[in-house]
Design a protein that fits this description.
The chain is α+β, with helices and mostly antiparallel strands. It has 8 helices and 7 strands, in the order αααββββαββαβααα. The chain has 2 domains: 140 residues, Electron Transport, Fmn-binding Protein, Chain A (Pnp Oxidase, Chain A, Roll); 36 residues, no CATH class. The radius of gyration is 20 Å and the shape is globular.
Amino acid sequence: MSRPVTDLATLESLYGDAVAASIAKEVPALTPGYRALIEASPFFVLATGGPGGLDASPRGDEPGFVRVADDRTLLIPDRRGNNRIDSLRNILADPRVGLLFLVPGLNETLRVNGRAVIDTDPALCDSFAVDGKAPKSVLVVSIETVFFQCARALLRSRLWDPAAQVPRASLPSVGSLLAEASAGREGGDAYDRSLAERIPQSLY
């Protein structure tokens, strides 16, 4: 039988007090160690919310693509994508953002919460150019809190363990997923055949 938790007192009594270290590690600005984790990370997940709902978007590039302007400010190029711009739409309505950074091989992650602004200053965008291609905008994130997350989730999931990798061919292809979701209007074998060439040509 379902037993939903509907009040804070019940929730807190269920889990008990937070571990002291989990509170002490949260700070309002980057420490040297936290900065090092961001500069080593090639990937993070950007969480946003707006009138249309919530969104979690993967963002990745070479380590250092998230630029630390100072201990309270991050600069993030909005690299080329599919132009859905779900995250950017949300930020216009609600600037609050959450970022979860991963570093390959490292089981700890880094969490940043703050507020973002979409900046289109030409000089700023040009400073993030790759192969002569600049992003259309840069997210300027003002940090409010930052802390590391312990290794349990990645250890349980064996995320970096080569033996846990799933063979790509054992799961549906991108073309088949798209065809299934669109009732055949998009995707299919032709989509899969063109993907290997199209993606590298459209990274930036």
